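re the bet — no i am not wrong, look at it urself. input seq straight from the record:
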Amino acid sequence: MDFILFIKAIILGMVEGLTEFAPVSSTGHMIIVDDMWLQSEEFLTKYVANTFKVVIQLGSILAVLVVFKDRFLDLLNIKRKKPDQGAPAGTGRLKLTQVIVGLIPAGILGVLFEDYIDDHLFSIETVLIGLVVGAIFMIIADKFSKKEPSIVTVDQITYKKAFSVGLIQCLSLWPGFSRSGSTISGGVMLGMSHRAAADFTFIMAVPIMFGASLLSLVKNLEYFSVSALPFFIAGFISAFVFALISIRFFLKLINKVKLVPFAIYRIVLAAVIYLVWF
């Protein structure tokens, strides 16, 4: 792999890592950056390039596992986690089964429509639609959020709430809408604090992102060549490093700034891209 390709992999990994867990759509940003400037399809082919955009999410997944390691050990009953700061007395624990319940809706639809999404929705036009519609949804969520949320920590989430957030997560199957944007907005509308909704979003992201990456990898394995491996490795490491930075920063920020600033950014970005691209 020559130096230019190495830089392209680093840039795509950086875009993925910085945007995966902010409600701005990492897939949308990668499609925009790649289609407008980097054009990885020219040297990876369409199917391998699309898979790369999914597989480097594994770097972001690893970053979540590092940040939330105590929570995941608790979910697996390996190590009991201390109660979250600010949680009401007598609060229970988030269970692995609740996370699974939240994953069911998007998991089913993702498997059923994966081919359609890959073939028809990975484009600048669909991303712009997702960015704007998702931004409007986020503004509505903030406008109607409760001043005193009934759920301030993920340990208070019920099975019903988990499934409801899972249903709303289905909106993120449209590139540009954003997984975290849809689930955090949905959680806030259901009475969660922004931080509780963000925590639940990140926890759910691990299995669904891992599953999507594995499915795409297996499906497109025949298109891979040994020469593409350094590109994938560079992108993976870059995504991990920048996601680690992004997650810690975002979790400190979300309860203070909420969703509207991210929504404004999405609308401005969509307008700029529309003027430049069209």
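see?? The longest helix spans residues 229-257. told u. also The radius of gyration is 18 Å. so pay up
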